[in-house]
Every structure is written in C-alpha cells, then in structure tokens.
Records
---
Amino acid sequence: MNRLSPERRADILLMLCRGASLRGVTRAANVSINTVTKLLVDAGMVCEDLHDRMLRKLVSTRLLCCKSWSPLVTPGERIVVDGDCTGHSGAWTWSATDCDTGLIVSYRLGARDIATARAFIVDLSHRLSLRATTLTRAELAEMSQDGAPFFLTMHRGDGPGSHIRLERVPTIPHNLATAQRMLGRRFTRLRNGYCRKVENLAHMVAIYVVWHNFVQKRRSGRTRAVDSKVADRAWNMIDIVAAIHPRTSHRPR
C-alpha cells in the first residue's frame, strides 16, 4: 500500500463505500487483499476521529433512529438468516439521522440491549447544542426490543437542556430511506455478503458515515455537512487519504 498513489487509495475507499467486497476491490484495483485491509483499518481510525471531533454542537430537533443487523461469520459456518436474527453471531449498527439535512449525527455498533441503547443516547446528546436528558429505562427497553425505527424529538425544557420524546415510525420518510438502506448493507464482506470480523465492520461503518456526511453530494450540489454548517466545502476521498498519519501509511519496507 506504501506504493499506491493517493488517487488509487481514494478509488479503493470509494469502491468500499459503494458496497464492493474486499475480494471485489482486490480484483478491480489489482492489489493485494492485505493492502485493502490495511487501508481499511487506517482510514477507519481516521474517519472515526474526524466524526468524533467535527460533529459537535449540532442544531437538530428531530432525528430518525434506526438499527441494522450485520451477521458475522467464521470460515466454514453455514448461515441461515431468519426473521428475528436469533441464533447467529452479529452486530447491530445504531444510527441517528437528522430529518432535515440527512446528516448521520451519531452511530454505535453493539448488541440490541438497554446498555447499548443508553450509550447511543448519551453519545447523541453530547453532539447536540442543547444537552438532552437521557431516556428512562422503560423507553430504552422499548428502543431495543425490536428492529423498528424511532423518531427522537428534542423539546426545550425549563432549564438549559432539552427533553427527548420517543415516537415510533410507521414508515421511513422517502428522503431518508436510501441512506438507511445503504447503512444497513453488510460491509467488508469476503463471501456471500457477510463480514467475518467485527473490527472491519466498525472501520467500514466509520468510513461510510464520513463519506455520507462530507463527500457524497445531494441534488443541490452540496454535501450534508455543508447544509448542516459542519464543513465549509465538499470533501473528496483524497482528503480522507491525506488525513491518514504518515507513520501508519508510509512505513519503510
């Protein structure tokens, strides 16, 4: 990977964001799978840090919360997917999307339980300009009991913070359906559309969220980060490649 130009690295990341598998990118880019995996890990760490630093003090009043299940398999394991995803190892991707701009404000990988729901809501509240109070245990249990999406509405309280109101979503709005469907795809797959490593899944989700927010342009020609006043211009994948620390991306052979 040390000999790849920034343009080729950007092309590899773009193929991953558009749903290509690790093996598929290896064949299309004519590089080693170790090269693609190393770039995936380095870019994932950078994107996770960028998302954590830049998405702060956001003005969001209505958010769509969705949970997407990604199965994780080991070599030789036979997968039979059922309706409630029980009996299979996997990870749930929790995401909160601003209903006005489509910006993915917060995300978290974990189980579908109260502990993950609480950590997800706490991280979300820290990214808003009005610090929101956490949900009750009953509301957290309601969030984690099934895969149905929810609306999270922020209401200004009597004090300096705001209160969160939980609402079930009968149907996902059309402008957010595509983003949630893409986020729910099984990233970094090696075969049959399934991922083998939760670490690779975490890195790929981090890369996809940054690409979705800062790189992908809407019909207006602006990115979601520009519309949300998080960035002053549209990024490209080369900006993400340039942010990778030289110590991790240009080590001597």
---
Amino acid sequence: MRPRHVLPAAVGLAVALGLAEPSAADSRALVIGINDYADPAIPDLAGAVGDAEAMAGFLSEVYGLAPEDIRVLTDAAATGAGIRHAIETWLIDGTRPGDRVFLHYSGHGDQTLDTDGDEPDGLDEALIPHDAVWGGSTRWDGLITDDAIAGMLARLEGREVTLMVDSCFSGTITKSAGGPTASTGPTPRTPVASVTRLATRSGANRDHAREADDWDQAHVTLWTAADATQFAYEEPGTPPSGLFTSRFIRGVRDRAADANGNGIVSFAELRAYLRAESEAFCDRLACPRPLTPTLALAESLSLTQDVVTRDRDAGACLADLLPAAEAGGLEASLLGASGSPATLRVGDAFRLGVRTHRAGELVVLDVGPDCRITQIFPSTLFGEQPGLAAGTALRFPPRDAGVAFIAEPPLGAGELVVLLVEDLAGMDAQLAQAKSLTPVADPAQYLDDLADTTVEPVFDETGDAAGSNREPQVSIVRIPYRVTE
C-alpha cells in the first residue's frame, strides 16, 4: 500500500498517442493513472493504472459515456507535455458549454515553493507527471502546479465538470512523491521527506486545510481522497487499487452508499460512505493520521441529488442528506404526544425536551409536512447562542415562556431534527438569518449548508507534531410526527 499526493488537476492524454484533434461531444472524460515514474527517486505506485482502467469502465457502464469519449493516459504517456496538450485539446477544445466533463487522477503529487504569493503556507500544490525530476524537499523540475490547473479549469466554464483526485493531501488538490516509505502499516503515496516537512508546519497546515472551503470553480465538483493534512492509501489486493477510487465506484455502481435504500445515491450519502470506509480502513491498518475524503460541490448542484442522475427523493425532505450520526451525545423527546410517529391533532399543544451529554453547538429544526424548515433554536425567543455545555437540559418552549407550540395544517408527516455539532462556524450567517421562528427562505440551500457543516473536518493538534484534521463530533436525533384533523 502506498500513499498518494497530487493535485485536483486531473489530466489527460491524447496527443502523446498521436490522436487527432477531438470533435466536441456531450460528455467527455480524461482518466489518468501513473504507477511508473522515470526518476528513481520517486517511488513507483502499484494501483494507479488499475484505478484509471476501473474508472474508465465505470464511466462507461454507469454514466453511459461511449468508449470513444473516454481517454485513458497511463505511465510513460503521461509526461508533462502530454498532460498539458491533452487538457487543451481533449477537454477545452473538445467540449462546449453545457457538456459534462469528467477528470480522474490517480498518482503522485507534491508541494513546491509558491512563486506568486497566493498560498498561505508558501507552497503550491502540483501534479507529478511521469517525467518530473525530484531534487529533494520542495525542489522539483517538470511539475504542473495547481495555479496552472486552475487556469485550465477556468476555461471549462459553462461545462459541468467532475474532478476526482485520488492522492495524498488532495483536499488542497495534492499528492506527494519521493523517498522511502515505512515497511509496516498502510503505505501512503508520499515520501518521508514530505512527512518531515509537514511536522514543522502545524500552523500552516491549519490554514491550508481550509483551502478546499475556498474552492472558487463554481462549475466544478471536486472529490478528493484526503484533506490537506492527510495521506491517501492504496489497498492491497489482486489487483491493488486506490482506496478512494475503489470505494467511489462501489458506492455508486453497487449502491453501497445508498444508506436509506431509496434507490438514490446522493452526494451527501456518497461522501458519508467514503468517509466511513476510509475510517474503517485506517482502524484496521493503523494509519498514522485520520483519513477524510472531501467534496466541494458545484454551485448548480445540491447534496440531495443523485450523483449520476441528479434525481431527488421527492417523498422525504431530508432524505439522502444528513449523515447517519450517533445520538449518544444527545437526548430529545416530544412532550405532549404519544405513538411512533407521534400523532398531533390540529390545535394540540406540545413541547420538545432536549438534554446534552457533551459540549457542542445545538440546532433544532421543525421540518413540516410541506418541507418548510423553521429554525427553533437558536432563535430570538429561545436563545441566540448555540453553544452549550455538557449536561444542559432545555425545553422548547420553556415552561415560563408564556407560549406553546401548537400543531396546525398542513396535515401529514413531518419531523423535529435536533443536532449537536462540535463546531457550527460555517453556519454563522445562515443561523443568524433564520432566528425569527419563521420558515427559512431557501430551505434547500439552508439544509445543504447545514449538512456540509456537520461533516466539516476539525483541526486537531493532539496527534503528531503537524496536527491533522479529523471528523467532527455530531449527534442527531430525528423525531417523526404526524399532524391529523
């Protein structure tokens, strides 16, 4: 098993193979995998070429791309010149606004000194072509930097681009190379030199870990195998493969990620599945730091949509969205109603009781039968600060508030959703706008933002000297109810 570092610059192939300039198509894919590196200082990989072949088959089988619309670039064909030319001709020149474009990258990558001052840690992420030369530490020749990739992605504006990067530190679009690796435990696609360098940069890592949040390619959906502080891994087997690529394919093609069994694999469900599988892998093989696949969604898409068809489950407001989190840190119950789901007649008064068993930030939502979302807490009436200590007991409304919740039309099924999240910093603006106890103006966007916040990695300095990101603590209790006449 080898770790991977590289950049969200999926790349291409083409001219190196003597292909003619492509004509425009409705869907087009570039798939790249590099096992063999020309520089002996860069360790070869075992599963990257297999990843590329598997992804090409997956795109044909599941997304319906014609074989002639998929280009696969591997090993010696994936030189710096070949990659750049392929992106230019196969992706940019060969597609038009409205087309769907896929880029998948599996191979090495690293960080190199930033030359234009746009990186908070002074390092650019870079793709490592087959013919790149490593000079030690951050000294490289022949890289394709993240700045160059960003410029090419910008020229794909108007297309719906999906970019998948199976590499170390890929949360900032990276993967590292060079140097020996440990002989026990999972092998990341990264060199010891990079691990040593990271150990001196914990502050920079914290800043850099947030770069994925600043992803500004609104037409691009970015999937990465790991976040900016982590390694991605190859999984042993026959044949070996990248853990991220194999689980991405299994989650969608085999519907292993369809947690609620409704036939839709949503973006939120696939992200949760990839994270659960990565955590289980690292539990088995004692990864040196957590492993957190990431997703930055294109602006036109929603976390509730099916990854392939873009369908939604119209029968459930929160279906395919919120993670399946443990409720151990939280208790919640509907007071004044009985049954499961609780039955409330129009005009019935009821309260909600909540008790926390750990510290965190609380959000309480009413999701009505018509999918209207009302934020009960935080609110101007019941308290505007979501942060709570362990052992806090609350009632909504409080007994002395002089008000009560009253069941009213529309009739049908709804639910109360109670979340205790370690850090809600990413929701500050949305929570503030929804404190009036009136329905949220844009419920779909609100729920997407909330779902993102419940999986936002938390930076943890308690591990190695560099620190690392980890999954946040999230507890969720969902209380279904039904309003009747």
